[in-house]
Amino acid sequence: MQSPGSMLLRLWRRLRPLPFGTWLFARIFGWLVPYSGSVSPRILVLEPGHAEVEIRDSRANRQHLGSVHAIALMNVAEQASGLALLTGLPEGIRGIVTHISMEYLRKARGTIRAVCQVSVPAVTADMDFDVTADCLNRSGELVARAKVRWRLGPGR
Question: Which among 133, 129, 74, 125 is positioned nearest to 98, based on CA atoms?
């Protein structure tokens, strides 16, 4: 059976070069992972160990003070961590989030890009692995940083 990460990577590579391919990939991703789709993510980069995901500063993603909501930031950071990590795992290895923490550094205004670069570990038994994802504003300023703990292990 194909792992979720390899299935997403294969789909990304097939759709990305097509007109509206990245838009279609984002819709499929949102359908496969419904809650993640709630922030209308746009995947910009997807390769094993590296992902960049963007969300717009839309009314649906804002809180009452006019900036991007803290949970929308956490959502997009978790997506970037998962896409970067899971697409780098070999077949037969699964992953699930067991803990996530977020440090909010400044108001998030405008389009936000979550960036994750990770060296995927060798997994031979169940293990915890921490991944960092940064949320940047349009100017490239760090607005939030997520630390996502993934439980990795052989599939059952």
Answer: 129
